[in-house]
Design a protein that fits this description.
mainly beta; 1 helix; single chain; eight-stranded antiparallel β-sheet; Pnp Oxidase, Chain A; 2 domains
């Protein structure tokens, strides 16, 4: 029997994170994220053991069923569009460069004037979205040879809260649940030559 070396891919860094709501053609690029933790969400069925007079006769092992992934996304700036995607709410934008006019609901390119989350007791929730995590692939010469793109389906955010501290930039941490549909994989990995262009 011959031994065959597997295809080894050395990945590093959070090169880019994108959020693509299922009800939109737009995709939000997060270029300031520096950490993404993924923990499998599982349900365990207990083992069944047949023990007679202290002797194990037979056993059916425990079964672990994967139900999705819990994703913790760490960003280094506040992004109102991301907060709205995760929990809903309303964003208002400045209508002019001087920030003197009344804020409007459409982004005119002059920045966010305000963000208001859903009111307490509201049934409003954020969007269902696809999360794409890009990591850089390096070779032995220290050159980037491509990117790993890991896609998580049917993501939904949890409510967002923020704090502040003297002399410390806020680092928001967002909790996201990904739950694949029946017959759908919990994630997919693709290898691409370049990152998508961010406008």
């Amino acid at each position: 029997m011959a031994l065959k070396k597997g295809n080894e891919v050395a990945t590093i860094d959070v090169a880019l994170v994108t959020i693509k709501p299922l009800n939109s053609t737009d995709e939000l690029a997060l270029t300031t994220s520096n950490k993404v933790e993924v923990t499998p969400s599982t349900e365990t069925t207990d083992a069944v053991k047949n023990i007679v007079k202290g002797v194990l006769i037979a056993q059916k092992p425990a079964q672990v069923t994967l139900t999705g992934n819990a994703i913790t996304l760490t960003d280094n700036v506040f992004n109102a569009e991301l907060a709205k995607t995760l929990q809903g709410g309303t964003i208002m934008y400045w209508a002019d460069a001087a920030h003197t006019g009344d804020p409007v609901a459409t982004d005119a390119g002059y920045g966010v004037a305000s963000y208001t989350p859903p009111v307490i007791g509201s049934s409003e929730k954020g969007d269902i979205f696809e999360l794409n995590l890009y990591s850089a692939i390096y070779n032995a010469a220290g050159l980037i040879t491509g990117y790993e793109k890991c896609t998580y389906p049917n993501c939904q955010g949890q409510p967002v809260a923020f704090g502040s501290e003297d002399n410390v930039f806020r680092v928001p941490v967002y909790t996201i649940n990904s739950a694949p549909d029946r017959g759908e994989a919990p994630y997919e990995i693709h290898y691409v030559d370049a990152l998508p262009t961010v406008s």
